Amino acid sequence: MQKIKDYVEANKDRFLDELFELLRFPSVSADPQFKEGVLNTAEFVAQKLKDAGADNVEICPTAGYPIVYGEKIFDPSLPTVLVYGHYDVQPADPLELWDTPPFEPTVRDGKIYARGAADDKGQFYMHVKAFEYMVKNNELACNIKFMIEGEEEVGSANLGIFVSANKERLKADVIVISDTSMISLETPSLETGLRGLSYVEVEVTGPNRDLHSGVYGGAVANPATILAKLIASLHDENNHIAIPGFYDDVVELTDEERKALNAAPFDIEEYKTDLGVAEVWGEKGYTTIERTGTRPTLEVNGIWGGYIGEGAKTVLPSKAFAKISMRLVPNQKSERITKLFKDHFEGIAPNYIKVDVKPHHGGEPVVTPTDSIAYKAAEKALEETFNKKPVPTRGGGSIPIVALFEQELGIKTVLLGFGLDSDNLHSPNEKYGIENYLKGIETIPLFHKYYAELSK
Questions:
Q1: Do the beta carbons of residue 401 and residue 76 sit within 8 Å?
Q2: Does 18 participate in catalysis according to the annotation?
Q3: Average pLDDT of 300-324?
Q4: What pLDDT, in 10s, does the model give residues 238-248?
Q5: Rounded to whole angstroms, how far apart are CA atoms 52 and 137?
Q6: Which residues pair with 304 in a beta bridge?
Q7: Number of other residues whose CB lies within 10 A of the CB of residue 431
Q8: What is the C-alpha to C-alpha distance for residues 413 and 372, in angstroms, rounded to an integer?
Q9: Does position 1 have pLDDT exceeding 90, yes or no?
Q10: Cα(31)–Cα(27) distance, rounded to whole angstroms?
Q11: Alpha-helix residue ranges (DSSP H) falling in 34-147
Q12: What is the pLDDT of residues 341-376, one digit of tens each?
């Protein structure tokens, strides 16, 4: 352990400089104007894998953005670890809410502020630097494969095709993903499950053109008003999702499971203060921890229509739109939930407007076993690094490819994340703690060591 710490300390400035260089690439996969930035990021990642000691590094083309692959197979008799990450990032909008430019990493109070700092550049790059340490110090305990993609933030549409076509190449004993969070540096944790996702876009159309709100207001239905009413009807007075059949496949936690889940350290007042809210909100009968990790949700991610520019324009819009995401829990299927939503939303629409529900992407919920060799190896590694046994938690986010990997490759995943829920993922002023980054680099070689030992 001390040898790893010494190496990280001696190379800390370089590790940070390299991460800052990676963060400067505007690799926004959702926006075509950033295409060059995404492709340049793939080149950078491939070069850094080569520099760290990977063999057979390749930028693999897909119908969208490429997947960077690299490996180090030094002893086929040893276990193989497949590291997954993504080099694309969310759009930085709204830019005016950033305190510093999103693609110019800035350090404040020990945190790196930049788009992608925690999701997922800072986290997957820990594995590259840990790999460098293991190669240079002859401490490789497992064979390693890297698969770093560029379309995670837009649904990984081409990853499944790549995985299906490269099953032999991707053969491994376990997949490690660092794209999740822990409770805190004082209370390390390991996520044991992730929610699934159903993402849709709704379009409501009224008149055949925008209308003067004085001339036509009160005589023609306003799509923005009707959309707001339809969305409001999706939750009942207990904040329960009011779509028939939505909860049919949800398995309720036992009293023992709920008790264990709520034993994790959590300060509700600190939570509210951090978010700047007077009270929490959610499904009646469940705690905040349960709501964010074990219950399905339906949230509006964006809503627009009509005039939204400066000043006033008295218009009754022809169309209104919303983007809606539903987080799913084990046993729920994204395809079924998407159909339930579409049928319900179109079914409750009044006949004086037209509704079109367009499915985007989805993914299945997963639960990772806590009795596996991989989980125990991660647990031992974190305990050695943090001097405290990690707490098992459930993650509220979604990584749809975890279910894909299990389906296509038959491999379980361990979620070895070092981010924090307060890192502003997908929001302005995203950040990642320097200590989190360096702790990750220290911990990952220990995971490989213990995984090899426990696999014997």
A1: no
A2: no
A3: 96
A4: 999 999 999 99
A5: 12
A6: 321
A7: 26
A8: 10
A9: no
A10: 9
A11: 35-52, 122-136
A12: 999 999 999 999 999 999 998 889 998 889 999 999
pLDDT digits (tens, 9 = 90+) for 186-220: 999 999 999 999 999 999 999 999 999 999 999 99
**Angle of helix 434-454 versus helix 373-386 axis, rounded to 10:** 130
Peptide bond into 188 cis (omega under 30): no
What's at 272, amino acid-wise?
K
Q: 419: which 2 tokens? A: 């981010």
Q: What share of the chain is helix, strand, coil (3-state, %, to 5)?
A: 35, 25, 40
Percent of the chain with pLDDT over 90: 93
Domain ranges of the chain: 1-194+366-455, 196-250+296-363
CA dist 350 and 233 (Å) reads 13
Residues β-bridged to residue 147: 69, 84
Torsion of the alpha carbons at 308, 310, 316 and 318, rounded to the nearest 10: -40
- The CA-based angle 3-22-81, given to 5 degrees, is 50
Residue 79 dihedral angles phi and psi, to the nearest 5°: -65, 155
Rounded distance between C-alpha atoms, residue 404 and residue 40, angstroms = 27
Torsion on CA atoms 258, 259, 260, 264, rounded to nearest 10: 100
Distance CA 257, CA 116 (A): 34
Q: What is the CATH number of domain 196-250+296-363?
A: 3.30.70.360
Cis peptide before 120 (omega within 30 of 0): yes
Neighbours of 429 (CB within 10 A): 18
Cis peptide, bond prior to residue 423, ω within 30 of zero = no
State residue 271's pLDDT score: 94
State the chain's maximal CA–CA distance in angstroms.
79
The token pair at 389 is: 């046994």
CATH number assigned to the domain covering 1-194+366-455: 3.40.630.10
Q: What is the residue whose two structure tokens read 């352990």?
A: 1
Report CA-CA distances (Å) from 25 to 137, 141, 228, 275.
30, 32, 38, 29
> Which pairing describes strands 111-113 and 55-60: parallel, antiparallel, or unpaired?
unpaired
Element holding 316 (H helix, E strand) = strand 315-316
Coil vs helix vs strand at 352: coil
Cα distances (Å, whole numbers) of residue 441 to 70, 135, 419: 19, 13, 13
Is 88 catalytic? The answer is yes
Determine which one of 152, 153, 191, 364 is catalytic: 152
DSSP state at residue 118: I
CB atoms within 10 A of CB 117: 31
Asked if the model's pLDDT at residue 18 lies above 90, the reply is yes
> Which tokens belong to 234?
């999706």
Residue 173 has pLDDT above 90, yes or no: yes
Exactly one of 18, 71, 88, 153 is catalytic; name it.
Answer: 88
Q: 23 and 115 in contact (C-beta within 8 Å)?
A: yes
